[in-house]
Structures are given as C-alpha cells and as structure tokens.
Amino acid sequence: MTITPLTLPTQDELPCDDGIPMETQRHKMQSDIATFDTDFGVRY
Length: 44
What we know:
Layout: H1 25-40
C-alpha cells in the first residue's frame, strides 16, 4: 500500500475574491480610529 502525502493548496488554487466586501462599516470605523490614534497619538 502506497501512502500519498497530503499537499496544501497553492496560491493559484485558493480563492482571492468573491465580490463581497470583507469589512463592515463598523470594522472601517474601528480601523479609522486605530489609524488616527497612531498618527496623532505620538508626540515628537
């Protein structure tokens, strides 16, 4: 009996986009707040 090792899918075999946005409006707002904090929270 021969055992064939499992292989992981390559990047060409993985889905990259299904047309549905991955982030909601809440995620966008949280991202904007985090970016604002890092841009203006540091004092030089």
